[in-house]
């Protein structure tokens, strides 16, 4: 057991209180970093006020203008696919604002015009060397082709060696479901990326999927809905305004790729603290009690499952992490539902229509199975299945972690059950 000094206790309790102080009754909370991709989509929302059409969030467009990298791209310090998607979205936003300046000053438009050649040059170089088969990023096979089509319509085309492979991966993904499925009452992960279906989807038939005004807590998807629906949605506008207001100081105009992420953040905070030497005796009891109530309420509302925020579709990853967190907080939750909904032939899937299995999701499911103490003796087949999957994955990749949810070496705590 690690020794925790008073200073660390104060910081840990300050973290817990900060999470709860920022917890909004309707929108929850979130502290993910700013996403240029989503910010670019927010910047492209316009609204008619009286006799005038105006850009609704010009501060988001200025954020894009102020954050181009010296290379000409955006987010180039992250993964290759992040740089590609962010730069595509930013380039599209530049073109849209130049075509229709609306209330923007000439100086701003001139600034935007000067950034386009560098952005195009960056994308040409990056797409040329892009390893499409080696890319493991959620939704890239739908988003990149859609962005290419939108840029084509703006007169900006890119031809690169991997384009045929990319379209093949997209077609394989689309073969698993029909767009009509998005109109049903059953949530689909693709709702998080509705911008990929502009021109193919009737957005007027998507209103029933709103949660606190958002499309699956995605600013980009919500922006697409606002832009494409025939009737303006005040609830969605209010959601985006709240996300903008919740951004950290110094990021005015920027938004994250998901908001809220309440359950995701609360479960990771609790489990990381407990797995690193903190205990109920050293942590603020009122904060732990409030977090337990939030998690328990979400599990009860969704019949034993949770997503990354209340009222959002459930997934195996957040459910597993929630089970572990609640066990640490003294409230056991059975793994029965996670087995019922997410168990597959050789592993546990994160969500329906998943293109490839996730290593980290299965690590978290294994941890949850081991924390379901009352029923663990009945879970031998599931535990064995996950262990075989993890060992097979590890051996086949020579110990290298390649996961769509993780971009760095996986911490040992991910697969270390807590006694």
Molecular structure report:
With 419 residues, the chain is mainly alpha-helical. Helix content is 49%, strand content 4%. The strands form three sheets. It has a two-stranded antiparallel sheet. It has a two-stranded antiparallel sheet with strand order 2-3. A hairpin with a 2-residue loop joins strand 4 and strand 5 (214-215). The protein is globular.
Q: Number of helical runs?
A: 15
Distance between the termini: 11 Å
Q: Which band does the percent of strand residues land in? A: under 5%
What composes the largest sheet?
Answer: 2 strands, antiparallel
Mean pLDDT: 92
* Rg calc: 22 Å
Report the uncertain regions: 408-413
Helix-residue proportion: 40-55%
What's the shape? Answer: globular
From the helix content, strand content and strand pairing, which structural class follows? mainly alpha
- Tell me the strand order in the biggest sheet: 1-6
Element string (H = helix, E = strand): HEHEEHHHHHEEHHEHHHHHH
Work out the number of β strands.
6
Topology:
Elements: H1 6-21, E1 34-35, H2 36-43, E2 46-49, E3 52-55, H3 58-65, H4 80-99, H5 106-129, H6 140-153, H7 163-174, E4 210-211, E5 214-215, H8 219-228, H9 234-246, E6 255-256, H10 262-275, H11 285-301, H12 316-328, H13 336-342, H14 359-371, H15 380-396
Antiparallel strand pairs: 1-6, 2-3, 4-5
Quick structural gist:
With 419 residues, this protein is mainly α.
Comma- or semicolon-separated keywords:
single chain, 419 residues, mainly alpha, two-stranded antiparallel sheet, 15 helices, 6 strands, globular
